[in-house]
Structures are given as C-alpha cells and as structure tokens.
Amino acid sequence: MTLTGASVTEAQASPTWFTELFAHRRWIRRTGPFPHIYARDIFVADFFQRLADHYARMRRERIDRFRHVADDGTTALGLSELRDGPLALFTSAEWHDLIAGVTGVSATGDIAGSLRHHAPGSATGATDNGLAHARFAGNTPGPGEVRCHDDADSASGATRETVRAVAMMFHLGNPGWRTGDGGELTLHAESTARGSATPALTIPPLDNSMVAFECTPRSWHTFAGGNAAGRGSVTLWLHRPREEAVQRWGADRIVQR
Fold first, then answer.
1. Bridge partners for 3 per DSSP
2. Which string of b and e fits 143-159 if b means at least 16 CB within 10 Å?
3. Bridge-based pairing state of the strands 110-118 and 147-149
4. d(CA 53, CA 113)
5. What is the number of other CB atoms lying within 10 angstroms of the CB of residue 34?
6. CA nearest neighbour of 239 among 172, 171, 185, 158
7. pLDDT by residue (tens digit) across 56-103?
8. Segment 179-209, tens digit of pLDDT
9. Which end of the chain is more exposed for a tag (fewer CB within 10 A), N or C?
10. 44-253 has which fold?
11. How many Å apart are CA 39 and CA 48, to the nearest integer?
12. pLDDT band with cut points at 50, 70 and 90 for residue 256
C-alpha cells in the first residue's frame, strides 16, 4: 500500500476562520484496496468538542427525527436540520470544496448526507460502492454555491439527475473506542455478500477521524457491525453530473435508487 501526504491547504485557498479549525494540515492518501483519504485528529480539540456536544444535543432533543435508513440498524438525521450550530460546517462551501479537492473530483455543489447513529449490536451492513443516482429539484448550483439536500431528496423523483461522486464519513460520538469494540468501516477489494469475506482494510471509528473517497465501481465498503456501544458519524455525499458518470463507467454500472 502506497502512502503519500495530502495537504488540506493544497485543495482550496480557504478563509482563515476555516483553516484555523484544523489541528493537522497533512492527511494520508492511500491507494488500496481503492484510493481513499484517511485523517485522524482533524480538528483542534475545542472545536471537536463543540461538534461532539452538538451531536449529543441532537440525540437528546431530536431523537424522534432520526429515521431508519438501512436494515443494519442505522438511523439518521438529515444535514439540512443542522444549519444552526458547529455541525453546519459540513454543509459549507469551504468543506465541499476541500473534500472535492483532496479527492480530485469536480462536483456540482449538491450536498446530501446525515448525522448517523448505529445502536449497540448493529448488524453487518451490505457492501456498497456508493455509485448511485441522486435526483434533486432546482437548477444546478452556480459557481461557489452549495446546496444541501436531505437524504430522502435523492430518491424523491425530482427531475435533475446526478450521481454520487464522493463519499465521506467523519466519526464522532464514539469516546474511548478500543480494538474489539466493533463498529468499524471496512473497505473491500471486490463486492461481497453480507459478511462473507475478510475486508482488505478495517478502519476504526475513532472520534475526530475521517475517511473520504471517490465513488467508483471499485469503492466497495460497509459497516462491520457488532458494535459494543452506539456509534456516531457524519455521512456526506458530493455529486457529479450524470452524463459524466455514464461516460466514465457506463449507465449499467450506476445503481438506481
């Protein structure tokens, strides 16, 4: 596995308020089992604590708004409900442009995602490469514009078609995680049936860490399950025009949702 540095500031010239949130400026670019970015201790301690507190508050105050999104026990609150507070960082143009830059993707400005929770003892998820259609209402965002959509919007039948271009997972709400506690993200060299193969790489759900990768026919990943305690994360997708994805991989490689 080849490792090289990926600088936060290489991706996008960002305002001072944004870059000062980061504890480390160097992220890791891995090539196997498919290209992805991995980073730990991303944000300075006080800002990460604000993110964790916001997550805990949403779990207390909006627990009825977390809906089931997968049969492995995942519940989620759409990012559009997090515009007030520190977690709104993940719907900002600065974050969108940073993630697009480090993954090398030219994205539309459409963001979809959620604050996620896996209950203790959740099942192993099904492997997925993330390469799926997403349909949104309205025109494509203009230059420098970012538009946040709920997860449900991507399957609502709205007329503008895109395809998921980048998947990102940021871990929080998992204090004191240790090996054996379960709930990891696993990356696979090929598609597998649920739980049927050893993953090529297992990534622990350490607080203040992140994984991001371009969605391609090879980007197989899943949730390991078996978590001893609840697991929290922010999941985010950036998007590209459907025509671009079809030209690169063919329409038959894109999952209809």
1. 30
2. eeebbbbbbebbeeeee
3. parallel
4. 19
5. 20
6. 158
7. 999 999 999 999 887 777 999 999 888 789 999 999 999 999 999 999
8. 999 999 999 998 765 555 678 999 999 999 9
9. N
10. Jelly Rolls (2.60.120)
11. 14
12. confident
Task: Give residues with Cβ within 8 angstroms of 130, minimum separation 6.
Answer: 164, 167, 215, 219, 221, 237
**Residues 215-235 pLDDT 10s:** 999 999 999 999 999 999 999
Residue 241: is the preceding peptide bond cis (ω within 30°)? no
Determine which helix (DSSP H) or strand (DSSP E) holds 62, and give its type and residue range: none
**What's the confidence (pLDDT) of residue 6?**
43
Is 125 in contact with 223 (CB distance < 8 Å)?
Answer: yes
How far is residue 178 from each of residues 37, 48, 67, 212, measured CA to CA in Å? 22, 19, 28, 22
Q: How far is CA 17 from CA 20, 47, 51, 171, in A?
A: 6, 12, 16, 22
User: From CA 142, how far away is CA 61, in angstroms rounded?
Assistant: 34
Give domain limits for the chain.
44-253
Distances (CA, A) of 43 to 18, 23, 47, 80, 210: 10, 5, 6, 22, 11
Check the CA dihedral 183-1-95-80 and report its sign.
Answer: negative
Kindly report the average pLDDT of the chain as a whole number: 88
Cα dihedral angle (115, 209, 136, 251), rounded to 10 degrees? -130
DSSP state of 80: G
Q: Look at the block and give the residue holding tokens 């300075």.
A: 44
